[in-house]
Design a protein that fits this description.
With about 280 residues, the protein is mainly alpha-helical. The chain contains ten helices and seven strands. Strand 1, helix 2 and strand 2 form a beta-alpha-beta unit.
């Protein structure tokens, strides 16, 4: 809903295109699917409108345009601007939030019910939906939306969570999110750390690890190579990674040595990162 936020993501390279026209959005989805081309498409508008349009398209054509669905709205702050109701424009929503917060809350909960209704219809048609860990299902449930699992206790949802569905057993293997930051703020230092990290992780793989752990390290190597290739850096020169204790210690030691040897200009800062890094 926020044009400034959308344009920022577009300028940073996360979006290939964006549009504020629902019909054009649907056209580009169909075109990319038909041509089997990758497309990162942003829609400037309320996502509830998009969900509802996807339902309309399915009901008219029986064509399911989305096979995988989720929601990353900031619903840990639903009534403070983390979620804007579909009934109001962004500007009107901001005004309502400021002057009539209770009415804003009512509209948010109504909007959540509308959103879930559309998601449920698409899921019934075959779309796979999951919660991204942003309290979407929790707040939708509190709003009275039909997200509870039939026959289960309240709070047991019909859709899986990001951790259950996407991350799998990664945490039980000891892998967790962290990042390293090049305090020099120099892209050349980040490139050096990328190369060091790939070498370290590949050496760990060669030393012999369990298959399920090896797969995680291989994913790490692939991520680092592709992130560098696509220049996925926003703000500080940093890289996010999932690794276990052994990997983090090995990387830290290798970075320290690179600083001591003069391969890096200044120190590298390692820190814990938010789950969805």
């Amino acid at each position: 809903v926020n044009l400034a936020a959308l344009e920022k993501r577009y300028n940073q390279g996360w979006l290939m295109e964006w549009t504020n026209d629902l019909s054009h959005c649907i056209h580009r989805i169909r075109q990319a699917r038909k041509e089997l081309t990758s497309l990162s498409l942003g829609y400037h508008g309320n996502v509830v409108s998009l969900w509802q349009r996807l339902v309309q398209e399915y009901e008219m054509t029986e064509e399911l345009l989305v096979e995988l669905g989720s929601d990353q709205t900031s619903l840990h702050n639903p009534y403070g601007g983390g979620y804007y109701p579909v009934q109001l424009s962004f500007a009107d929503g901001q005004q309502c939030l400021e002057t009539h917060p209770e009415r804003f809350k009512e509209l948010v909960q109504e909007s959540l019910r509308l959103q879930v209704d559309a998601i449920n219809k698409l899921a019934a048609a075959g779309m796979h939906f999951w919660d991204y860990g942003n309290a979407f299902l929790l707040e939708a449930s509190r709003a009275g939306a039909k997200v509870d699992k039939p026959g289960a206790s309240r709070g047991i949802f019909a859709y899986p969570s990001y951790v259950q569905d996407i991350m799998g057993d990664i945490f039980s293997l000891g892998f967790g999110p962290f990042r390293w930051v090049c305090t020099s703020a120099m892209p050349t230092d980040l490139e050096v750390t990328d190369n060091i990290a790939i070498t370290v992780l590949e050496n760990i793989i060669k030393s012999g690890v369990a298959d399920n752990v090896r797969h995680q390290y291989e994913d790490n190597c692939h991520w680092i190579k592709e992130a560098g290739h696509n220049k996925l850096v926003v703000g500080s020169q940093a890289r996010i990674l999932y690794s276990d204790r052994g990997g983090r210690v090995a990387l830290a030691l290798a970075f320290n040595k690179a600083v001591a040897d003069g391969k890096l200009h200044v120190s590298i800062y390692l820190l814990w990162n938010y789950q969805y890094g």
